[in-house]
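Memo to structure team: turn this sequence into structure tokens by end of day. - J.P.
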Amino acid sequence: MSGYRLVTYQAESGPRAGVVIGEMLYDAASAADRSSYTHVTAILEDWRRADEAFRQLVPANLKGQPFVQSNLRAPVLWPSTIYCAGINYHDHAAEMLRQWARNSEPDPRVLLGKPWHFLKAPRSIADPGATVHASAYSKQLDWEVELAAIIGIPARHISAEQALDYVAGYTIANELSARDRTSRANIPRDLPFHFDWLGQKSFEGACPLGPVIVPSSDIPDPQNLSLRLLVNNVVKQESNSSQMIFSLAEQISQLSDGITLHPGDIILTGTPAGVGAGRGEFLKAGDTVIAEIEGIGALTTHIA
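Reply from structure team:
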């Protein structure tokens, strides 16, 4: 059986699903002999059969191309929903509470109570290696390395003990944030209309994603992965997913109580300390950001 990674690559006919085995990329529909597997979302909608089919592939029988020569797109181009966990690492909670001049509770789980999520516009996704033109949109453009979970099986009212069975795989996200668009200065702070989550979190290119989806069976413990983010080769964030306040399983359970999670939905699981807002540093035109997660790879984004 072959270990593989799932990608979206740009073919002459447009974006297509690909399977990476070793150093080679193969067209997913051709390799699995399934005409419906042209896009990753279609594969996720048939996840159990697709996963088994890809693991049975024999590279010697396939025609492919060198992976390094491929033009990669975001592995899930058009998800129905992107759920983002807010304040979900112990060290990040501490740094943000310090910024807000608040004293943290001894246990952030007590302070937060349960997982808390906001939405990011699906069309804000950016490809691996893409240039995000956002420096004019925001003068306080921030970085956030995050483990992203891709749902592979519809999930509704799922317990935390069952939750990881519904995950198809994992990839890397850089959850870009426009900190200077967090609030509306002309609206009093004590009114709910003061805050602008759309302006802060959903703009063109705000969600770099990729480069590959690693099947969940190849990452048996998503709560023990090292994460790192560099800006212009300087380390800004470095932590481990074990530092999450609420585990991915708890997040899936919480979300599925309110709405059905569908194949292709993406859950960004939170970011550790070291974000620009905590440092008083922000991205500018010409910067290069590299987000890394153990067992998945590296996601590069250029700022313009």
